[in-house]
């Protein structure tokens, strides 16, 4: 009598090994995806915290309050300020004037950052370019004087100082002329 075929008692050993291998692979991929998701969320939360910290100290002097900030953090502050001034709605002349003042402040802030990190060539270039657009901006001229002094450019320093003195004298003369009775 021929032997009876063995009873089917579930999966064979090599099928069990293949199933175990696939189960390990799927579990490994799921764990890796979970790790990537957790890392992404932690980086996103850190970015949001940093951005909110910038907005909390928005009106303060960046160098005084965050003197330990890295170049990347300071660049992010400048970028956020520039973006916020570009997205504000302009309803009337007062808002438009405020918009111009914000952009002026960005140039001053950026020049201050360059000066603080002793990147005088970049500060000088930025200040000269901005002064071409805003020739009456006294704060920018004072920063340019600071750059000239730090880089020992005495001739340029003296010329700018003379120019400022002439402007002040003209302003005083015009004020005294307006106040004299006719």
Task: Write out key terms for the chains shown.
mainly alpha; 182 residues; 7 helices; 78% helix; Serine Threonine Protein Phosphatase 5, Tetratricopeptide repeat; single chain
Describe this structure in words.
By secondary structure, the protein is mainly alpha-helical. The chain folds into 2 domains: 41 residues; 119 residues, Serine Threonine Protein Phosphatase 5, Tetratricopeptide repeat. Helix content is 78%, strand content 0%. The protein contains 7 helices and no strands. Helix 3 runs antiparallel to helix 4, helix 4 packs parallel to helix 6 and helix 5 packs antiparallel against helix 6. The longest helix has 44 residues. The protein is rod-shaped, with a radius of gyration of 33 Å. The termini are far apart. About 7% of the residues have low confidence.
């Amino acid at each position: 009598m021929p032997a009876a075929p063995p009873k089917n008692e579930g999966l064979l050993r090599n099928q069990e090994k293949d199933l175990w291998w696939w189960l390990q692979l799927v579990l490994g991929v799921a764990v890796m995806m979970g790790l990537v998701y957790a890392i992404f969320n932690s980086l996103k939360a850190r970015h949001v915290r940093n951005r909110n910290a910038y907005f909390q100290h928005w009106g303060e002097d960046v160098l005084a309050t965050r003197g330990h900030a890295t170049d990347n953090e300071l660049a992010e502050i400048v970028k956020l300020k520039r973006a916020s001034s570009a997205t504000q709605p302009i309803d009337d002349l007062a808002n438009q004037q405020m918009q111009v003042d914000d952009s002026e402040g960005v140039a001053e802030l950026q020049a201050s950052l360059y000066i603080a990190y002793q990147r005088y060539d970049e500060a000088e270039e930025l200040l000269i370019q901005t002064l071409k657009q805003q020739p009456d901006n006294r704060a920018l001229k004072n920063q340019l004087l600071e750059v000239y002094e730090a880089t020992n450019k005495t001739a340029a320093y003296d010329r700018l100082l003379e120019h400022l003195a002439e402007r002040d004298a003209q302003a005083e003369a015009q004020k005294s002329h307006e106040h004299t009775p006719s």
